[in-house]
Amino acid sequence: MTLPGAALPPPVHVARQPIRRPSGDLLGHEYLYRSAAGRAAGVDRWSTARQDAASASVLRTLYDPRRPRAAGLVFVNVTRAFLVGDRTLPPPDGRLVLEVVESVRADAAALAGLARLRARGYRVALDDWTASSAQRAMLPHADFVKIDCRDLDRLGEAGLQEARTSGARLVAERVADDELRERCLDLRFDLLQGYVLGRPALLAAVA
User: Fold this and answer.
1) pLDDT in tens, the chain (207 residues)
2) HSE, side-chain direction, 13 A CA sphere, residue 116
3) pTM over the 0.85 mark
4) Which of 61, 77, 110, 140 has the fewest CB atoms within 10 Å around its CB?
5) Is 172 part of a structural domain of the chain?
6) Residue 7 belongs to a domain
């Protein structure tokens, strides 16, 4: 697969963090861009062009034909460029979940792109749900909605119910300890992600 026009070199490291069912069974992983030193790079604070390139390089790393097939679903942050066809995606394989970052605006081209990609077999997750107008517009296209545990009090039960209205499965992010895990189970989250379930681990380099 060729992903053209990267504005930065491919990452030396990609990390993955498990996403688990309440039973503890593995659903898949979120795959995260890491700096050359293997640390979180703060991609959400980068320019749009650099975020595009970071997502492209994570996808290129994961779909390198030399790399063994990943276990479970593959969640990767994507920007608007991937929704509207300005950036290339790997062919749909039933595993790739396009995790739409919260900065994507829900204009007509982005919404049409989401519908087209889902029809082709990609799954869609909305990252960092805050019930923004853009996220509400994209919600009918979502298979998963990810909610940061730090937003639970602000969203309340009504915010969680809204996220469920189109049938999406709710993923609790930043589940840092057992107390938060129990709270998320009480709130009927479908899936859990965070340090108490597993910390991000770097993928081994391929030869």
Assistant:
1) 434 444 444 445 889 999 999 999 999 999 998 766 566 656 666 677 777 888 888 999 899 888 888 889 999 999 999 999 999 999 999 999 999 998 899 999 999 999 999 999 999 999 999 999 999 999 999 999 999 999 999 999 999 999 999 999 999 999 999 999 999 999 999 999 999 999 998 887 665
2) 11
3) yes
4) 140
5) yes
6) no
